[in-house]
Design a protein that fits this description.
Strand order of the largest sheet: 1-2-3-4-5-6-8-7
Shape: flat
Radius of gyration: 33 Å
Largest sheet: 8 strands, mixed
Structural class: alpha/beta
Length: 939
């Protein structure tokens, strides 16, 4: 279908799948000479009014000349793009390069006229704004910097598309036509508009999967058992509020119902609309099902079928074909190899999963790539109410399986403004797009807690995404910078999530501890110290404490301004005054309710009744009324026995989390303390300062000239110093000394005292190996040091010795910046030396770094006390170090061609600092996905 153009090969990289405003998908691609019939058919479906707005006159049909013009492009000066669904055009956009006289032109002319046409049936779906993003990116690639468009004043929708895009523009009115001109360089506002549209579109696309009006289960078995029949049963038992349909091509023609659900041999046979299809057929039958669903107008698919990327190369190809096939019809996919989805909202009650019991409605959203982990999470919530008390049911649950289409990023977009979700829990085996994930995580975490267990797996099989080269620990650090609560196990995931779901955030790290066991109180105290909290001395109420004693002690602790959170410890007590579990729970709840601003946690030993009493009806089993509805929904009234539901707590009851171990409670509290601190700091993220001595243009000219030599190169010492100098970063000159005489002349030029260093790769920055001699005060000491080095390590040409003027004594540090193809630019800081390398004591921040980021960066390493006067030493000049970090950040942010930069060592003295070594690597910058138009991952 796609042919070579008049002047350039078909630009396949312009093809993209996109999510529209209503959550449906479309494909954008260049228009070619093979599209003549599609163009004519498309035009015939456009209303006369829309045609008039496009051509400024009645234009009922396209002439042969029009069709030729609109389908023949050189992909440079004339470009046309089409948005398609099911292979048919729903909208088109084109640009024609023009000169200053408004006539057709070629480069170097950098302006083009742009025009759109959208089928009336698809207007209002955000098609034009999406096409504008893509045609603007194409134009920038072809050297066009400005668009012009002429629009009739009555065409308010198209005027709004242009004015809302966020580009710098100007408007004029002449001869009854509005002329709009706008620059195509992305602006802060245009990126904000683009990302807001992305969020709404992707959230809606997930919402269509989680809140469908009707569901068809394709592959429902005729006999009990099997995946399809199980899911259908789970949907019924949950009390799904919309119509259900059972579909299986093997059904007898006379079968009209199955378990009280209408039965059909094909989705095509269903008379009414179907919003969601659950696909549970063998992989080889899935393409036929996708076609049937697409032609019937199904909005989305949950594919439970296995046999895709997890099964090898053939399965990966099958998976890519599945995604392309579904997107061609505007459908999104969860799966394949998925466990399913759940939505506990009373308006939906969707259990389209293999989980046999519907979780209790609650405020926690769950996402798991792994079906096994999804089962474990739901099981823990069901078995223990999370093992932690509180109103801790589930709002929505997504198990994405192979994550071929819908990913954790999409679900985050949905949860961001989902009023039913207060806390998001995610198990991620990998992060396919770290740059986007950290951006979305930062925005989400500013509104609600996001707790993540991050596996160390590679990118999902079958995905064509850039793989990050960053170590797992670095990615984890960047997630924490974005406000993500990073935990290591699913137990910690549930513990932290359920605390955050119902308890307020602590305002600081001070913890009061009280209880009826001195030993358990001391264990809790030690756990607090281990987690970096500041515990107060434990208060021992003794084993004879009554419920009233607990109530009084908790009331006093909550009223104490010297604590920010309270941990209550409890063990079984023996005695006439010993409270029952229910009495103790009521005492603690009433005291906590009187001071709701501070979090309260309970650590209990062998008091399962206390946990149950504290949580009351927080099990994830169905409520009593849900069970009744499920029974009523079954054919003839269900006779299946259901477990009794616990009565809910009284209205306004304060729900307190209870943990079976002090370490678990304290670890969850510590994560809440760190997250609360991040929230406070995120409210004022700081600024990227400007320095008047930075010469951005001079650095750009130098970089362009250097890159003209080749695709990638490591700069020499002089070039490195020159480039860094444009950003106010001064390095101490190191003079090569291939002979003792050269060393003496260099020292005389630099001035004594000097340092003599071996710069061979195996000795560079390895003072511990003896390749450095410091404080050489005169020629005699210098010659002696030179002889020692050559005697120990070999000939001068092997050592590559250099002479450098001595810097003021201080703390040796290392500053690095790297451009990762997936995560973007990352700035790293640590102390120099083997100990820091051995302990991996390095902190990281995403570029651009703000002044607050720089301040926190140098304080994030475990060895930071060495910078601040540890054990009586003189504190060093950390403000100068922060300024250096900010200047490095500006350099790599302004010039993405700087793909690697290392300053080592940077000696930070009590007054000022000295950069003693520097290296810079240049290369053509990797593409910035976050600056381009909105697209779905490529397959």
């Amino acid at each position: 279908m796609q042919s070579a153009s008049d002047r350039h090969e078909y630009p396949a990289h312009w093809e993209a799948d996109v999510v529209l405003r209503d959550g449906g998908t479309a494909r954008i691609r260049p228009i070619t000479v093979d599209d003549a019939e599609r163009l004519v058919s498309f035009y015939e479906q456009v209303s006369d009014e829309s045609k008039y707005y496009r051509f400024f006159a009645p234009y009922p049909r396209l002439s042969a000349k029009d069709v030729h013009r609109f389908t023949h492009h050189d992909f440079v000066d004339r470009v046309g793009l089409a948005a398609t669904i099911g292979g048919e055009f729903i909208a088109t956009v084109r640009y024609d390069r023009i000169g200053a006289d408004g006539m057709a032109a070629s480069a170097p002319a950098d302006e083009a006229e742009v025009a759109f046409l959208v089928q009336d049936a698809h207007q209002g779906r955000g098609v034009a704004s999406t096409l504008l993003e893509h045609i603007a990116a194409v134009a920038r690639e072809r050297g066009i910097r400005r668009f012009a468009a002429e629009v009739l004043p009555a065409n308010t929708k198209m005027i709004k598309v242009f004015t809302d895009a966020g580009y710098t523009q100007k408007r004029s009115f002449e001869d009854g036509v509005v002329r709009l001109e706008f620059d195509l360089e992305p602006t802060e506002r245009s990126l904000a508009v683009q990302r807001a549209r992305e969020q709404r579109a992707e959230a809606h696309s997930v919402g269509r999967l989680l809140a469908p009006g009707s569901v068809a289960v394709v592959g429902t078995g005729r006999t009990p058992g099997g995946v399809g029949r199980s899911v259908l049963g789970n949907l019924r038992e949950a009390g799904f509020t919309g119509p259900l349909y059972a579909v299986n091509r093997a059904f007898p023609e006379d079968l009209k119902e199955l378990d009280g659900v209408p039965a059909h041999r094909s989705v095509r046979d269903i008379a009414d609309p179907v919003d969601l299809a659950i696909v549970a057929v063998p992989a080889e039958q899935v393409p036929e099902v996708v076609t049937e669903c697409g032609e019937h107008g199904v909005q989305g698919l949950v594919v439970l079928s296995a046999g895709y990327a997890e099964s090898g190369p053939d399965g990966r190809e099958r998976q890519r074909a599945l995604v392309r096939h579904a997107r061609a019809y505007g459908m999104r996919i969860i799966g394949p190899n998925a466990f399913g989805v759940i939505n506990t909202s009373p308006e939906v009650r969707l259990n389209a999963s293999l989980a046999p019991e519907m979780p209790r409605p609650g405020r926690i959203g769950l996402f798991a790539q792994s079906g096994a982990i999804g089962i474990a999470l739901l099981s823990r919530l069901h078995r223990r109410g999370g093992g932690v008390t509180g109103d801790t049911g589930v709002s929505t649950f997504v198990s994405s399986g192979n994550r071929a289409d819908v990913s954790g990023n999409d679900v985050l977009q949905y949860w961001y403004d989902d009023p039913d979700t207060d806390v998001a829990l995610m198990y991620l085996e990998s992060i396919g797009n770290p740059r986007k994930f950290t951006r979305l995580a930062r925005r989400t975490a500013a509104a609600k807690p996001l707790v993540v267990v991050q596996g160390s797996g590679s990118a999902p099989q079958g995905h064509a995404v850039r793989a990050t080269r960053l170590p797992h620990a670095t990615v984890s650090a960047l997630l924490r910078q974005a406000g993500v609560i990073r935990v290591d196990t699913i137990t910690e995931l549930v513990d932290a999530g359920l605390l955050l779901a119902r308890q307020p955030l602590p305002t600081g790290p001070r913890v009061a501890i009280l209880g009826n066991s001195e030993s358990l109180g001391l264990l809790t105290y030690d756990a607090c110290l281990s987690e970096g909290l500041r515990p107060l001395p434990p208060l021992d109420l003794t084993t004879e404490a009554s419920a009233e004693d607990f109530h009084a002690a908790l009331t006093r602790a909550l009223a104490d301004d010297t604590c920010d959170a309270v941990v209550v410890t409890a063990i079984p007590a023996i005695g006439e005054t010993s409270p029952s579990d229910a009495q103790l729970a009521q005492a603690l709840r009433s005291a906590a309710a009187a001071a709701p601003a501070k979090p309260v946690l309970v650590v209990h030993v062998e008091l399962g009744g206390l946990a149950a009493a504290l949580s009351a009806a927080t099990s994830t089993a169905p409520r009593a009324e849900t069970v009744v509805r499920a029974r009523e929904a079954a054919p003839g009234g269900a006779t299946q026995q259901q477990p009794a539901a616990v009565a809910p707590p009284a209205e306004g009851a304060h729900l307190i989390p209870a943990y079976p171990a002090a370490e678990r409670a304290v670890r969850a509290l510590a994560e809440a303390v760190k997250y609360a601190q991040w929230r406070r700091e995120a409210a004022d993220p700081g600024k990227v300062p400007g320095y008047e001595d930075i010469d951005e243009k001079g650095a750009a000219r130098l970089i362009d000239g250097l890159l003209a030599r080749g695709q990638g190169l490591t700069l020499g010492a002089e070039e490195t110093c020159e480039l860094l100098g444009h950003y106010g970063i001064r390095t101490r000159r190191a003079v090569p000394a291939p002979t003792p005489e050269d060393a003496v002349r260099a020292a005389a030029d630099l001035g004594y005292p000097v340092a003599l260093k071996a710069t061979a790769p195996h000795l560079r920055h390895r003072a511990d190996l003896g390749g450095v001699r410091l404080d050489l005060a005169d020629e005699e000491q210098l010659r002696r040091a030179y002889a020692e080095l050559t005697g120990l390590f070999g000939r001068p040409e092997e050592l590559r010795p250099v002479v450098q003027a001595m810097a003021p004594r201080g703390v040796d540090t290392v500053v690095r910046a790297v451009i990762d193809p997936a995560a973007g630019a990352v700035l790293s800081f640590g102390l120099a030396g083997a100990a820091s390398q051995l302990l991996d004591d390095t902190a990281h921040r995403l570029v651009p770094v703000t002044d607050r980021d720089a301040t926190s960066l140098i304080r994030s390493i475990r060895t930071a006390p060495l910078l601040f006067g540890w054990r009586g030493s003189t504190p060093v000049d950390t403000p100068a170090l922060e300024e250096l970090l900010l200047r490095v950040s500006r350099l790599v942010d302004d010039h993405p061609e700087v793909v690697g930069l290392t300053l080592e060592p940077v000696v930070v003295a009590p007054h000022g600092l000295s950069v003693l070594g520097a290296s810079v690597r240049l290369a053509p910058p990797p593409a910035r996905d976050d600056l381009g138009p909105r697209t779905l991952p490529v397959y």
